[in-house]
Each structure stands twice: as structure tokens, then as C-alpha cells.
Design goal:
binds glutathione, 252 residues, Glutaredoxin, 10 helices, 2 domains
């Protein structure tokens, strides 16, 4: 960005929806940079003309409007925010090109390798499928555990929240919520000491304190996400137990 002039608040607009982890990630990025903006809450069952005009390809939130120009896709927006306001706030991407490439690599890892088995674990019926998904999720969580332990830093790329932390951020509040609904603990201090400490630090970090995840509001909304999720939630509420071979994972 050539022009590093301070933006008037009305020049930046974020189209979002309260439950969206992608929107929350963008809010956290804007908070790191100290950017003021106007927030527009979308009804995704009745999308506004503005949203459809600004994101005609995906028709999804988040969309960031900067000087009237839209930026869509949360990962693209986060990088854009870091570049557009490079002169203020904390750095989201590292300065070093190789470290930047590695940060992007781990973002892809979270999307492609980690999130799918966690979602599968949450939505699977008790039995082999649930056990296999748990095993797959734990295997990938171990990769992150080792990465964090090796780095020896508070966050993935340093002493403050950066790109990888933001992309993993939703899991820091979603995993405990899933654990509570299913009644199984996946990330414990014993199994994943570095990762569980990171979760605590992340949830306590300034951007997350600025925009806390709407956990209590989200819990019942999980029921609306899909039949399988509804099934998992209802099964738990009815007091049915997880399968017998998963006793070691059960919440105490
Ligand atoms: N890849 C997108 C995903 C965004 C996304 O899935 N947004 C959801 C809300 S969580 C949405 O707008 N859904 C509306 C729809 O699918 O019609 C990103 O990272 O921004």
C-alpha cells in the first residue's frame, strides 16, 4: 500500500455474522492492528445486496470493504490487513520470507489435515468411525504439540498472536465445546502440554479478549448446524455414553 494515511473509521467495513469463526479471525486481525471499522451483521438466510455485490463468487462472510474495495476469504483478508496496516500494531506474518512461507504452510495444515478429523470426530456416531476420527485428530494434534514444544515460544511464531495462531484460534474454543457436548476430553494437559498451554494463552491474548468467542451462544446453535451434530448433542443430553472402547478419553 503506497499511502499509509490513517483511515477514517467509515472507510473500513466488515460484513460478518456473529457465529462465524472466519469472521472472528478477521476481527482478531483487525484488533492486532488497532483498526477501527464499521461492522455489518448479515442474515445469511437473507443476504444483503451489499454482501452479494462485494462477494459475488462465494457469497459468504467475512468481506472487508477498504476504501470501497472488497476483499473476501478470511485468510486473504488477514494477510491484507497485515499489509495494509503494516505500519501499525503487531506483525501478523513474520518478516522473514521463509518464516512467512512456513506460517502459510501451517495455515494449510490446519485447514486440510487438522480441522476435518476434528469435525468428523464431533459429528460421528459412537463406534469405530468416532474412534478412527479421534485417532486421526490426535495424530495431527501431536504434530502441532511437537511444533510448539520445539519452538519454545508463547505463540507459534513468537511472543504474540500471529497468522498460525489466528488460523488455529477457532479450535481453541471449539474443541472444549465439542468435548463438553460429546463428554470426551481430547486435548488435556497430560497428553498435549504445550498445546493446552497455548490454548489458555491464546484465549487470554489481547485480540481474543477484545472479541471473545460467543461460546454460550454457540452451544445451542450447534443443534442447527446439521443432523449429525444434532444427533451428537441430543445423544449426549440423553445421557447415552460414548462407546466402551473410548473410556480412557471420557470426561471425568
Ligand atoms: N473460506 C471462507 C469460508 C467462509 C464461510 O464459510 N462463511 C460462512 C459463515 S461461517 C458463510 O458465509 N456461509 C454462507 C453460505 O454458505 O451461503 C473464508 O475463509 O472466509
Amino acid at each position: 500500500m503506497d499511502d499509509h494515511q490513517e483511515e477514517a473509521p467509515e472507510k473500513v467495513k466488515l460484513f460478518g455474522m456473529w457465529a462465524s469463526p472466519y469472521v472472528l479471525k478477521v476481527k482478531w486481525a483487525l484488533s492486532i492492528k488497532g483498526v477501527e471499522y464499521e461492522y455489518v451483521e448479515e442474515d445469511l438466510r437473507n443476504k444483503s445486496d451489499d454482501l452479494l455485490e462485494h462477494n459475488p463468487v462465494h457469497k459468504k462472510v467475512p468481506v472487508l470493504l477498504y476504501r470501497g474495495k472488497p476483499v473476501a476469504e478470511s485468510d486473504v483478508i488477514v494477510e491484507f490487513v497485515d499489509e495494509a496496516w503494516s505500519y501499525r500494531g503487531g506483525r501478523i506474518l513474520p518478516d522473514d520470507p521463509h518464516e512467512r512461507a512456513m506460517a502459510r504452510f501451517w495455515v494449510r495444515f490446519v485447514h486440510d489435515k487438522l480441522s476435518p478429523p476434528i469435525w468428523k470426530w464431533f459429528t460421528a456416531a459412537p463406534g469405530e468411525g468416532q474412534k478412527a476420527a479421534l485417532g486421526a485428530a490426535v495424530e495431527q494434534l501431536q504434530v502441532l504439540e511437537d511444533l510448539l514444544a520445539l519452538g519454545g515460544k508463547d505463540f507459534f511464531a513468537g511472543e504474540s498472536v500471529g497468522l498460525v495462531d489466528l488460523s488455529l484460534g477457532a479450535l481453541a474454543y471449539v474443541i472444549p465445546m465439542y468435548e463438553e457436548i460429546i463428554g470426551v476430553r481430547m486435548v488435556t494437559e497430560e497428553r498435549f502440554p504445550s498445546l493446552s498451554a497455548w490454548m489458555g494463552r491464546f484465549l487470554d491474548s489481547p485480540p481474543v479478549k477484545d472479541h471473545p468467542p460467543p461460546v454460550e451462544r454457540l452451544k445451542p446453535s450447534c443443534l442447527l448446524l446439521g443432523n449429525q451434530t444434532t444427533f451428537a448433542f441430543c445423544r449426549r443430553r440423553r445421557g447415552a455414553s460414548v462407546s466402551a472402547d473410548m473410556k480412557e478419553w471420557r470426561m471425568t
